[in-house]
Amino acid sequence: MRPLEYRRDGSGVALRPGRKFPVAGAVVTAAIVILAVAAWFMFTARSVEILVSPEPEFVAVDGGLVFKFGPRYLIRPGEYRVLAELEEYEPLNATIEVTGQRAQSIQLSMARLPDRLFLETPNVAGAEVLVDGESVGTTPLEDYPLRAGRYRVEVRADRFVGYAEDLDVAGGGSAIRKEISLVPDWAPVNIDSEPPGGTVLVDGQEMGATPLEMELRSGRHELEVRRSGFKTWRQTVDVEPDTPLDLPTIEMRPSDGTLVVRSTPDGATVLVDGEFRGRSPVRLELDPGRNYRVELSQAGYKSASRNIRLRSGQSRTENFRLEAVTGIVNLSVAPADVELLVDDKPAGPAPDRLELIALPHRLEFRKPGHVSRTVTVKPTPGIPQRLEIKLLTEEEAALAAIPKTITTAQGSELILVPAGQFTMGAPRGEPGRRANEGLREVKISRPFYVGVREVTNREFREFRRAHTSGTAIGFGLDTDDAPVARVTWQDAAAYCNWLSNQDALPPAYAEESGRLVAVWPPSTGYRLPTEAEWAWASRYSGRDRAPTRYPWGDTMPPTPGSGNFADMSARAGLQQVLTSYNDDYPVTAPVGRFRPNALGLFDAGGNVSEWTNDLYRAYGGVNQSLMVDPNGAEEGRYYVIRGSSWRHGSISELRWTWRDSADEPRPDLGFRIVRSIN
Questions:
Q1: For 659-675, b where at least 16 C-beta lie within 10 A, e where not — what string?
Q2: Does the reported pTM lie above 0.70?
Q3: Domain extent listing, the chain
């Protein structure tokens, strides 16, 4: 063995002589590390497409390891900044977020550089500039930025017409220069007068004296020129911007005279030279030095006129006293002690004679406990009028207000029968009188309605479709316009309740033990008349005449057209007929074919006899006490029948006072309806 020489080199590592550093291994190791890092990056990086609009001249991604492959980048998830540049656009400096998604696309936009607005108004300093309604400064306006788009640019200055335009801005950093000359919003106005020295007012504000040059804002103005001793001159002028206005010289006219016209009474029509100028009292301005014809007129008064002449500036009052034109109204007033008001003014007790101005007047008549009455009259000069006034008590007025006729749901007419007092029955010794017709005083205390005609087959069949009136003595009774026959009292009552229901009225009959009985006091529904109501309505002849014995008068035989009785046309089927009378109807006739009675009822005598509401009771002798609204017997089986029919031809049966009774239907028995008043 040989000893080695010891030597220290600069690194402090002793190398054995003859050994070399392992370069190949280091390279391999480095390559492995690089490959590992690359694999790690490729595994964790994401493919990201970054699209910038418009396409920039330069683009870069800052914030980490980034590889670009065409339009896409390999970037690990995280936050990065994208930098881009393009001429006429603002530099892009945007932050993006790369997520863990494998393939991503990110879109970015670049904004154009704003243009710069420079605006001047050479003839006005400090004009206000507005962009889209917002003030942005005053002129001269310099370097105001406007991004691409359309803007409303306005320029305003006091006493100048506003300027406005729509400005389209492209963007890109260009300079937009505007020079705008504003138009003055006023104009010089020259005004003069003859004579001069008139005070000028514009819109009520004093501006100076003529001759005068003034500056007025554009628009409509009210001008006045005033001068003592002259009429005020007035005119409306329209001033255009920056357009001088020279008005013609104003010729001042001397002042008017003032005329005040008064009259007794007030309200007269005032004419000046035939032209309407108002109603008195009235103030008039008239030219001086002229003659005027002033005339006053008013309805009910004589006209008056005068000639008037005024000096300049003169004030004058003329009073006219108009002479009334009257007429006479003669009054007949009942009852006594009625108070009179004329045109709402008390005039004391109503006189027999009134002298009133020939105008419409409102006359009111009053008396305690009575209903006042008001009428309007217009007296006529030279022609007296007569006025009859009767004040009604409140009860009389209430009755007068009741409709005279009403109509049922079927169209049948009922007529109003007034209350009254009369004698029922016939005196002893009257030919044909029967024992059940004893005299009795009866009072109908309330008015009521009664059917003008008997109920017809058509009307009854609307209630009971299957009903037939049948035939008699070989003739049919069943035509629609003939009175219904062969109905019981119960049938008639049921029809009345049905008709009440059609008109939404309370029923007049109630059911007891399977039969209808009359409700008393009666309701306002339809019902049969009481015997007293039937007698009062059929024999009604007014308050000034006595009732007749027969439907046509007091003697036999019947006069032609009196009614449908047992006549010569029925002699083949009836034993007793009127040999000197022929009505051409052997059985029932259409309702309303013959003359009505004094009240207007048809067939109260003749055609068919009629059921009444009353249970039958006989009246013998004379009943001295007054019977008020009698309604028959308390109980019984038979109901009262009144009125003759087509089967009757004897003196007894044809009389108004004839009474009969039954509980079964007959071919000559029908009914008519009545209705009470609430």
A1: bbbbeebbbbbbbbbbb
A2: no
A3: 43-109, 115-179, 186-251, 257-321, 326-397, 405-676
